[in-house]
């Protein structure tokens, strides 16, 4: 019997799309990958995959049997576009796979929700739990028993030591280090290179050496 075609649509054709696409292509899990983006000319090829228009093509694509979608716009201070694109695609009926680069080291004892991107050389250790639609970018480390909320982004090279909790819609910048047991509230921003030694409240920006209120 002929093997069913596996097809995926990526929403957003920018830099983050290229990181995700590289992982998808390495995995060789899909026969056909489409990309939507309102700002890129239809027919443009990105790493061999066609841009097929903006999001208005999604209902037709779903009717044609493409069932899986992945949000490939990134987020730093604002997750609202990722959130909007996710809800739009979910309402059409799409489901969201996890995309894990083959170089990542993810414990079998970690829990992953849906729509998560895990980039090159990421480590996710035992007992960690990653919320839906989160991004663990290249080289980040999520140590044992950490909890990362929904729609959060752990940027390149950031380190969450053991038992850290990161709220929903939160950004932890490149090369930031969060020491063990720290709680970071929802919708917070941790600047690139920060060292977080104390808890961070909701919707707060921590920059540089952050001792919080607990030390
Ligand atoms: C935290 C961040 C989002 C703030 O951006 P912003 O709101 O545009 O802030 P500004 O650049 O206007 O900086 C505001 C102030 O914070 C300081 N600041 C900004 N980022 C900082 C950082 N990471 N560490 C320490 N101080 C920082 C600036 O020097 C400036 O100080 P001043 O008011 O004394 O001049 C941004 O600097 C940052 O760290 N982005 C993360 C980039 C990253 O990790 N990318 C990886 C993507 S995978």
What does this structure look like?
The protein is of the alpha/beta class and 215 residues long. It folds into 2 domains: 7-92, Rossmann fold; 98-205, 3 Solenoid (UDP N-Acetylglucosamine Acyltransferase, domain 1). 15% of the residues lie in helices and 26% in strands. It has helices at residues 15-27, 58-63, 80-92, and strands spanning 7-11, 32-36, 45-46, 49-50, 68-71, 99-100, 105-106, 111-112, 117-118, 123-124, 129-130, 135-136, 141-142, 147-148, 153-154, 159-160, 165-166, 171-172, 177-178, 183-184, 189-190, 195-196, 205-206, 209-210. The strands form 5 sheets. Strands 6-9-12-15-18-21-23 form a 7-stranded parallel β-sheet, with helices on one face. The chain has a 7-stranded parallel β-sheet with strand order 7-10-13-16-19-22-24, with no helix packed on it. The longest helix is centred in the first third of the chain and has 13 residues, at 15-27. The chain is elongated and about 55 Å long. Residues 76-77, 137, 155-156, 173-174, 189, 191-194, 207-208 line the site of coenzyme A.
Question: Can you give keywords for this protein?
Answer:
seven-stranded parallel β-sheet, binds coenzyme A, single chain, alpha/beta, 26% strand, elongated, UDP N-Acetylglucosamine Acyltransferase, domain 1
